[in-house]
Amino acid sequence: PTTMPPTGVSYTTGWDTSYTIKLSDNVLPDGSDKTVEDELHSIATQFKKFAEGLSPLTTIPRNVEEFEDMLVEWLLYVEAFSEKNIEFTEIVKSDAAGKLRKVIDVPKTTSLRDEENFLCARFVKHAIEDDQGTADVLARIAAIGLLTEVVQDFVKPVTSVDKTNLVVYLDAPVAMELLGVSGKLAKENTAPIVDELIRIGASVRIFGQSIEEIKNSLGAVLSNSRPTGPTAQALARNEVLREYVANVSRNPVPMLEAMGIKATYRTRGQTPSEHQFFTNEDWQGLYSKIRYTDNPSAREHDTDITAFVVRQRRGRTNPDIFKSQVVALTRNGLFAQIVRRASCEMGGLSDEMVPPVIHRRVLATAMWLRTGMGAGDLNIPKRMLLASCEHVLAIRPGVVEAVKRLTDALGDEEKSRQLDLLISQDRSAQALMDKTLGASNVVTDENLSLLWQEMLHPHLEDERQKGVEAVNKEKAERKMQLDKAKENLEAIQKQREHETASLEAKLETMQREDQGVVGALCTDVENSLRRTRTVRISTGLVLGLVFSIPLLVEATPVVRGASFLIGWLLAYLTATGGKLVGISTDEKRALKALHSMAERRNMVGKLDQFKVRWEKTAFVITARSKLPSYDRDDLLSLSIKDE
After folding, report:
1. 118-122, 374-378, 506-510: which range is least confident on average?
2. Residue 619: what are its φ and ψ, rounded to 5°?
3. Residue 632 region, left (φ>0) first, then alpha (ψ -120 to 50), else beta?
4. How would you label 470-490 residue by residue, b for 16+ Cβ within 10 Å and e otherwise?
5. CA 252/CA 272 separation, integer angstroms
6. By CB neighbour count within 10 A (0-12 exposed, 13-18 middle, 19+ buried), where does 218 fall?
7. Residue environment code for 50-87, b if the CB has 16+ CB neighbours within 10 A, otherwise e
8. Over the Cα atoms of the chain, what is R_g?
């Protein structure tokens, strides 16, 4: 790959093949003007600021250059182990309780202290999760270590691999990662490797002994009040359900088979024809060398699966990992180292040959380079970094025991119960580890209260945040209610306007109809009044004719007297402005006639809707004005109930 390392490195293998790793002009692959040195210095500055923010109890470097050296060394050697040499020594060391006990001292592959390893892992995990640019640079640096191991060790990235008949047995911790009980990141690191193995034709299996180890390990976590390890951390982070862990602890086989992992059951006495390739003496010798654990069951398990793999090989070895027939895959670097060295001593395995037990890091790198498994990106290094960080950052039993010992010494049972609860919470456990950097010897009576405050702080912050969220939620609910009330008001107003418009249209139609009816009524009255007027005129003409006849013919004195009186009467009426019989109709009489006819026809209500006036010989109809309260909104009262 040409996108990984920030410096030029050359290697020559035993096959006289030279590999050169370099980045042209010492610039970053993204085309920016920054040099690698500038970028590393910038990241180291971030690292220093991050470390100071944690404010651990232990001493940390003071200048940026120290942080830079520390980070680069950690990235190059994270999860790295020398497959060719290892020297164990037995020393006497005090535990968290102050008791002296014999422990195995394993040589380190780096010069970094445990606290520095923790600090690096803490920063790298933070950077990968929060800063993509920094994550890419860190992954490229880590890739140098990956490629260096591949070139220097037995796996030579010479040819690509499309098919293989390799049989891979998963160690119990690797299978637990695949099952997801060790956490999300661990599964994301292991699952692609297993999937790629199956894709290229490899058979992935697990021994019955590993099945039992999974059951025992998960059972111990579930029964422990202060569990530690990957599964305990995954439970604390709510990455896995306790019910699921319990289900796996009862029988993980169906779940593994669903993933394409077959269970194989063998015993040490099985298949005697294979015993010559790994004798009982070889078994005893390897068992005696596995001293990194005091648990005899774990030592027996590791020895058994090694014996089964060697026997299945029947003495056949190969320098190509994908042609090695059978291997066991582990995440325990010490286990892989011991088996390699024991194989060289007991079976004459040469340095170029693939040992029966290989580290997951080695297989993942070989697949990354040779099977096309994301060779064009940095997902493999990133996943390995995150998984390694999670492993390094796992809560240390020694730190928990140190805090427990000092807490129990206070004689407060409630405090001890609180400690159990806090340790089971991921954020509290992480706060404890951040403050101590995983070192139990920094826990003292003087800083115990400070450690308690640090563990309680996430919960106090959670409560404060919950309070803020509750207030915000209440405000949001009230706002929703207010908005809903406004919407209801607007809807009612719109409905009212719609109904008003509809009602007005109906009223207008009815008014037009009623106006037509009243108009017809007025016409009838006008006709009646016109007939009356005609009768009056006719009567006047008759009277005029009658009283004009005596003037034309010989009349008696009586007739002349009557005519004289009538003449003076008419003269008087004319002089006084009076009249004997009127021929015109006044408004009062016309309206009285109109109301009289309306009563006879039961139309008074309709008539009252209009203003009717009399204009000499005809009625004039006009609509009445709207009520004064027509536009008053206060006549409509609404009540909004709180929901």
Report:
1. 374-378
2. -85, 145
3. beta
4. eeeeeeeeeeeeeeeeeeeee
5. 29
6. buried
7. ebeebebbbebbeebeebbebbbbbbbbbbbbbbeebe
8. 53
- Please tell me what DSSP assigns to residue 27: B
Taking the alpha carbons at both ends of the chain, their separation in whole angstroms is: 65
Which tokens sit at 174? 């690797």
In residues, how long is the chain?
643
The answer on pLDDT for 584 being more than 50 is yes
Q: Is the pLDDT of residue 491 over 70?
A: yes
In angstroms, the CA 453 to CA 433 distance is 13
Which strand (E) or helix (H) includes residue 298?
Answer: helix 296-313
Average pLDDT over residues 384-392: 81
Q: What is the per-residue DSSP string for 451-512?
A: HHHHHHHHHHHHHHHHHHHHHHHHHHHHHHHHHHHHHHHHHHHHHHHHHHHHHHHHHHHHHH
The SS3 call for residue 91 is: strand
The share of the chain scoring above pLDDT 70, in percent, equals 79
pTM: 0.63
- Domains of the chain, each with CATH number or no CATH: 1-77+112-152 (no CATH), 157-394 (3.40.50.1010), 399-472 (no CATH), 473-623 (no CATH)
Answer whether 408's CB lies under 8 Å from 416's CB: yes
pLDDT band at 553 (very low <50, low <70, confident <90, very high): low
Query: To the nearest whole percent, how much of the chain has pLDDT over 90?
Result: 20
Regarding beta strands 357-359 and 326-330, do their DSSP bridges make them parallel or antiparallel, or are they unpaired? Answer: parallel
Spatial separation of the C-alpha atoms in residues 23 and 35, rounded to whole Å: 11
User: Average of pLDDT values for 344-366?
Assistant: 84
- Helix ranges (H only) for 181-239 are 184-199, 208-223, 230-236
Cβ atoms within 10 Å of 390's Cβ, excluding its own: 21
Average pLDDT over residues 316-320: 88
pLDDT in tens, 244-264: 999 999 999 999 999 999 999
Place of tokens 């058979």: 203
- The token pair that represents 314 in the structure block: 């029947």
- What secondary structure letter does DSSP report for 42? H
Q: What residue has token string 């139609």? A: 509
Closest C-alpha among 94, 67, 200, 150 to residue 440: 94
User: Residues 571-587: what's their mean pLDDT?
Assistant: 66
Partners of 90 in beta bridges: 104
The torsion of the CA quartet 310, 311, 316, 320, rounded to 10 degrees, works out to -40
Q: What is the pLDDT of residues 156-190, one digit of tens each?
A: 555 788 899 999 999 999 999 999 999 888 898 89
- Taking 70 as the threshold, does the pLDDT of residue 394 lie above it? yes
Model confidence at 304, pLDDT cuts 50, 70, 90, reads very high
Contacts of 254 (CB under 8 A, 6+ apart): none
